[in-house]
Amino acid sequence: MSSQQQQSSSTSTNNNSLQQPIPTISVKLVLLGEAAVGKSSLVLRFVSNDFQENKEPTIGAAFLTQKCTINNQIIKYEIWDTAGQERFASLAPMYYRNAQAAIIVYDITKPASFIKARHWVKELHEQANKNITIALVGNKYDLVEDEEEGGANENEESLRKVSYEEGLNLANEEGLLFFETSAKTNHNITEVFVAIGEKIPKDKSNESNINNGNEGGRIDLLNNEHIPQKSNTCC
Amino acid sequence: MAFFENLKDKALNTFQQVLLDKKDGSGLTKEQLFCQQYHIPDGETLIYRSNGVVVVKSEYNETTQADYQVPLSQGKIYLTQHFLIFEDENDKKNCSFNLYLSTVKKVERVSSDYGELALNIITYSKLHITLHLDDIRSECERFASSLSTTLKKYLKNLNKLQPFIQTCYSEYLLSKNKITNEKIDHVPPGGLGLIFKFPGNAKELRDKTKLKMWFDYFKEHGRHLSLIKTPLYYKLIRVGLPNRLRGEIWELCSGSIYLRIDHQGEYINLLNNNKDKKSFAIEEIEKDLNRSLPEYAAYQSTEGIEKLRRVLTAYSWKNPDVGYCQAMNIVVAALLIYMSEEQAFWTLNMLCDRIVPGYYSKTMYGTLLDQRVFESLVQNTMPILWDHIIKNDIQLSVVSLPWFLSLYLSSMPLVYAFRILDIFFLQGPKTLFQVALAILKLNGDELLKTEDDGTFISIIKTYFHTLDQSAHPSSSNSKYRNTTNFQELLVTAFKEFSNIDEEMINQHKNKHRDSIFQNISSFVKRTEIRNLPRLNNISNETLNILYDRFYSSVEISNITKGSGSSLMDYKAFLKFMSDICDWVQFIDPKDEKNDTHFLKRLFNHWDPEKQNALTFSDLTVGLNNLVETDLMTSMSNFFELYDDKHNGKLDRDSIIQISEDLLYITSPWKEGYLFDEITKVAVENEVANEIYQEQIKNGNEKFELPKHVDVNREKLEQQQVQRYLQAASTFMQRSFEYAIPEKEEVLIEDLAIDNKISHNAALNPNTPVYLDRPTFRMVILADESYELLFSSTLRNATHLSKPLDQKFNPIGNIKNMFDGLLADGKKVANQVRRRMDSRASQMTNNSSNNSIKSSKSKIEEEDDEKDDDFGIISIDEKDKDLILATEAQTLVDPITNKPANQNEFKRFHKAEENSIHKHNKENLIEFET
Ligand SMILES: Nc1nc2c(ncn2[C@@H]2O[C@H](COP(=O)(O)OP(=O)(O)OP(=O)(O)O)[C@@H](O)[C@H]2O)c(=O)[nH]1
Ligand SMILES: [Mg+2]
After folding, report:
1. I need a surface site. Which of B80, B132, B134, B907 has the fewest CB within 10 A?
2. Res. B718: pLDDT tops 70
């Protein structure tokens, strides 16, 4: 598995450092999950290899890009990081439309966030692109790391509230990739994106050739009845 | 679990929320609009209005020399319960005020040069306001007397004034500088900036100078509740407010200052009364406390975090429909830098209720609507840029939504965001649009070069970080060179886009409101249905119908009740059930006896929170149990309705109650309005028999269904009535026969073997007895009508998926059913054919037992039915063979195959009798389709 992270490029779109004829594939990826599970932190780690202890909540959505090379192919992730609070859910369709990949994040110390993750899986299966690649991610692994390495006090209640098996079972039932990660300690973060890059169906339409822009009309804000159209994105 | 709490909340509120939100901005009454326009609290009504001339003087004014011309303004005068309002003809530009009447010290009549009547009003702030009314004499007198009654009436408000002015920095400023004699003991409570420093460089911002200018202004034009607005007032705000006064001017501009004085103490009470209470909103707030302006020092301290927690929590109690929305944390954190907790709390109220309604609500309706409006405005004002955005499929809302929702506080460096906020509080929500348009306009050239969201976003981001830099760094004109990006932004926003006013925004809102509303309600519906617990017996389509029915009945009942909530009360529940259940007959919800009524029992049982109301989820879970398809579960569900102690035992009273309720439920059948399966089969048999007899007589192979067959309807009806009456009495009898005497098992275990004794004991009304679940089921199963009631009759008479618009009349329906049954030629024809076949088979194979029929042949019959036409049947030799072959298999009919029950029966001496019973029934059901 050759994975090599390129320099952070949340802004640049023209890639002038690489001259070799490696095809670049653009992948639209959306992050979903309950508030404060660490979606933005996950992205920040992947894009800038950084972590902030008190990250402000995402209002609406944020957009970042990052390139990485997977199996001799450059994948440019166009990442839509969404707000986690329940009431922002009505905005989500705006961001996951046409997405080829999704990361559904929960916090392994918060059982409610796992239930929320189930809902997102359902929602995506019902509403999103039919062949969307979904990864289920249980974040904040660092919080339980110590207790799992045998250092845990028997009497103390475990911080972990969602077991690895529960996560894995959901992933297997629904055909999702599954990881437990920590944005804080950089545990398994790149792995998530690499696995998505490997799993994603690669057909011609994904290749970033010319920017064909408009994909059959703009979507109204919040037009939930919208059925995702072609799966290609612009670069 | 909190999450479920949230779902419940959602169910309670979302739909209503959408309705409420929809009203906002569109459904305001005239009075509300008036209050909104003058920033006074809702509920004020116009007592008097007139044209007039106003002259204002201040006792503190040092410039009262002989040549000083007292400014004079002509305009409109309004009197409400708590306010005297004046606005000059020049669109409030020259002179306007909202005088809070409690600040009036004295009113005297003076001679007027301009009108009929002149009143000199002297305030505690030592302003002399002379009103010259331009009205007919009688009206002027009416005004004078209204004013004096109003003043007297609100004299008690004076007590509020004293503690209140202690909280105003303007008052402190004047007292400290010996202008007033007010004793202000402490520095008024203010923002966190007083302790943790205000953002920005005070010197650079010329904070002292600005404060001095306001000081002068207060002397001359009054302050807080009695401030006169002149052109200088607007200017002073536009240049940026001084740190220490910012909070007070914000609350004055927004009108939240009036909420604060009118509701003194409410903030603290809210917190105290809800101390230690938990809610989903609080959980959400907790998640974000450390994530609110973390770069500002106060929010790395417990003091700052505590304040933020208290204001957000208090608001979530004050307005549970909104609760907490992300972005509110940032807005409140920003307010708290300049405002006391109480000031911030009331300003937050003003924001959510009036200034940006629906921004933070559960559906975020206002946010979505304003985004749409913004897009329209971009399209109208910058068509080239808009085309570019469309062509490249750029999601404008990704950049713009946070601007609006967090009032630019999460997008721009704080110092600049606060400048925008100054103007926002002054001139209202149009500010957000004007600034947003200006941002796009000023970056237009750059933005036109982008083709993707990423670059688009980063251009704007970069721009925000260069607001302090020169807008024209290479210009030779030093004036241009010294203009910062931010100054240019303000000029563009408020000069170039000054035509973007409330009226234009409202027009756009009206255009888009319905489609946003539609989208939200369908989203809410989808989510709410998806979030329901798993329901095995109700399909998704049915849930959709139930959802509409639930909300339509809730709405109707609330209109009559006059209060809004999307909970279903008992009355609405009765209506709901009588709409979809054949077995529900009218009962008066006000009837006292209803407390023991079956429907009341259902209602209470389905209401796990005991809030005397059902959520949509409660209702569907209950209905799902009611239409349970599994017989054993269905009986158990029913048992549970009466198991009030949750110990699996029904006492004597409960047994009597059950039997009464069974009478109630079965009354349509007991009274012959509806026919159950047993009767239907009997009817079919009767008809088929008649035709069969005809056939035999005529010896025809082919037959035609007669147009009319005489069935003894009366007899069949009577049979059914008898059957149900019998069932009821048998139920009662058997229940007590098999009821288990309390304590018996432990005390005299040996004797318990003797059934006779125990039964006798049970029949003795003095012996406490109970019915347990297996016994209850056994008693039900022992009666064919009641068994059928739980296996199908009740379910079939509960029409969950009945379309909402379908009106139906149960009695009419029943008649039709009887006629329909007779007219159902196919069924009857099948019956007849089966008889003929059976006769044929008896002739060929006398020994075969044809009372039991295979499920396979059943399926094939159904297929046949589909092929048949209008009852003209030719008997095919091949069919005959098929049926013969399958009959020989003597499979057990799946409907009556209930091994689990059989086991239970064996425990009782009636078991044998029962199985005979069942065989009889199989014979009966033989012809069932
Ligand atoms: N211990 C630990 N904390 C984390 C981790 N990831 C994120 N956090 C913290 O969790 C909080 C929320 O992180 P965010 O990345 O803002 O969460 P989010 O899912 O983007 O939240 P919203 O934008 O509100 O939906 C922050 O205080 C982070 O510092 C992690 O892996 N371990
Ligand atoms: Mg985030």
Report:
1. B907
2. yes
| pLDDT tens column, B757-779 | 445 555 566 677 888 898 999 89
Check if the beta carbon of residue B363 is closer than 8 Å to that of residue B18: yes
* CB-CB under 8 Å, A86 with B401: no
d(CA B524, CA B518) in angstroms, rounded, equals 10
The pLDDT tens digits for A93-146 are: 888 988 999 999 999 999 999 999 999 998 899 888 889 999 999 999 999 988
The length of chain B is 929
> For residue B563, what are the CA distances in angstroms to B98, B152, B552, B555?
33, 34, 15, 10
Tell me how far apart the alpha carbons of residues A106 and A139 are, in angstroms, rounded to a whole number: 6
Ligand 1 near A88 CB (within 6 A): no
Size of interface A-B (CB pairs under 8 A): 146
Alpha-carbon dihedral sign for residues B714, B717, B723, B724: negative
Token duo for residue B750: 């040996």
Residue B365: both structure tokens together? 């309706």
Q: How many CB atoms lie within 10 A of CB B553?
A: 21
Distance CA B923, CA B929 (A): 13
User: Would you call B392 and A13 a contact, using CB atoms and an 8 Å cutoff?
Assistant: no
Q: Does domain A25-228 have CATH number 2.60.120.1130?
A: no
Query: Quick one: DSSP state of residue B484?
Result: B
Instruction: Tell me how close the Cα of A2 comes to any Cα of chain B, in angstroms.
Output: 27
C-alpha A27/C-alpha B90 separation (Å) is 58
| The token pair that represents B243 in the structure block | 């740190």
Distance A39 CA to ligand 2 centre (A): 5
Distance B521 CA to ligand 1 centre (A): 31
Kindly give the pairing relationship between strand A24-33 and strand A101-107: parallel
Q: Computed from CA positions of residues B324, B330, B331, B336, in that sequence, does the dihedral angle turn out positive or negative?
A: positive
Q: Is the dihedral of CA B688, B692, B694, B695 positive or negative?
A: positive
Q: What is the model's pLDDT at position A224?
A: 38
> Lowest-pLDDT range, B457-466, B591-600, B806-815?
B806-815
CA of B22 to the centre of ligand 2 (A): 29
DSSP secondary structure of B91-135: TTSS-EEEEEGGGEEEEEEE--SSSSEEEEEEETT-EEEEEEEES
- Mean pLDDT, chain B, whole residue set: 80
**CA distances from residue A148 to A144, A185, B929 in whole angstroms, order as listed:** 6, 16, 61
d(CA A140, CA A229): 35
Say whether pLDDT at B821 is over 70.
no
B739 burial class (0-12, 13-18, 19+ CB within 10 angstroms)?
buried
Instruction: Name the residue with tokens 């604060």.
Output: B260
Residue-wise pLDDT for B518-565, tens only, equals 888 777 788 788 778 888 899 988 998 998 888 887 765 443 332 334
B196 CB-near residues (< 8 Å, 6+ apart): B296, B297, B298, B301, B304, B337
Question: Which residues touch B581 (CB under 8 Å, ≥6 apart)?
Answer: B797, B798, B799
What average pLDDT does the segment B359-384 reach? 94
Per the DSSP assignment, residues forming a β-bridge with B470 are B484
Residue among A50, A55, A91 whose CB has most ligand 1 atoms within 8 A, to mutate? A55
User: In the 3-class helix/strand/coil scheme, how is B306-341 assigned residue by residue?
Assistant: HHHHHHHHHHHHHCCCCCCCCCHHHHHHHHHHHCCH
Residues B447, B367: contact at Cβ < 8 Å? no
Residue B771: CB atoms within 10 Å: 28
Which residues have a Cβ under 8 Å from the Cβ of A216 and sit 6 or more positions away? A229, A230
Q: How far apart are CA A124 and CA A136, in angstroms?
A: 12
- Residues 145-204 of chain A with CB under 8 A from chain B are none
